[in-house]
Amino acid sequence: MTYTNKKSLKKDENGFAKAKLKVYAYEDSFAKAKLKVNAYEVSFAEAKLLGGTK
């Protein structure tokens, strides 16, 4: 693909950057969701430990 107009190239790069940001935002929320799951698993493990000592 060749661009004769530099403005259209800038526009494309801008759209690509925005798309990348969306992917990063998605990955960030996915990481946060994983953290929540890990926190849940930890509290579940702690509850099992507490239950085992009774």
List the helices and strands and how they pair.
Blueprint: H1 6-53
Short note summarizing the structure:
By secondary structure, the chain is mainly alpha-helical. It has one helix at residues 6-53.
What brief labels describe this structure?
single chain; 54 residues; 89% helix; 0% strand; rod-shaped
Walk me through the structure.
The chain is mainly alpha-helical. It has a domain of 26 residues. Helix content is 89%, strand content 0%. It has 1 helix and no strands.
Number of helices: 1
How many β strands by DSSP? 0
Summed over residues and divided by their number, the pLDDT gives a mean of 82
Overall geometry comes to rod-shaped
Strand content: under 5%
Secondary-structure content class: mainly alpha
For the termini, the CA-CA separation is: 70 Å
> Which residues sit in consecutive blocks of at least 5 with pLDDT less than 50?
none
- Radius of gyration, in Å, reads 23 Å
* Fraction of helical residues: over 70%
Which sequence of SSEs, written as H and E, runs from N to C? H
The main β sheet shows up as:
none
